[in-house]
Amino acid sequence: MEDKNILETLSREELIELIGLYSKNWLAMDGVWFQSIERKFGMDEAMYHDAEAWRRFTVIEAKRIKAFLKLPEHAGIEGLARALKLRFYAHINEDRVEIDGNTLTYTAVDCRVQTARQRKGMPFHPCKSVGLIEYTGFAQTIDDRFTCECVSCYPEITDATCCCKWRFSLNP
Description:
Layout: H1 6-9, H2 12-41, H3 43-69, H4 76-84, E1 94-100, E2 103-110, H5 112-119, H6 128-142, E3 146-153, E4 164-170
Antiparallel strand pairs: 1-2, 2-4, 3-4
Helix pairs in contact: 2-3, 3-6
């Protein structure tokens, strides 16, 4: 029997399902290491390491997506909208992108991280501080003219209809 790359034997539907599985596995790994530090050293120490990991990872992820999409250096609002839809967790969380002129609002309607912590009886992940690092770094890697602000994110929820909301503004 010829040794084929197994991915080449899968149908389109199976490949899409596998991408979802990979995304869930990656997110589970992210949570497992975080919870290990949280249990042993506390939330502050876990948040420190989470911030440091996201500071580097978000740039790596954005560069790879930018290259995959063949986006120009200044990809603008449309480039960021396309890139956000290809993040590793984009298709396993329910999200929404709204564009108004030079502003893009990204809303995570449902977040697997917070849902899992709630299901396990754990306190919510205080993700605002890390989210600022993550989303700012991602957007500025797609186009360095972006600024990012948190509209709503735990522990500072201002919009109870979602898990978090971020506003990206494209500066001239």
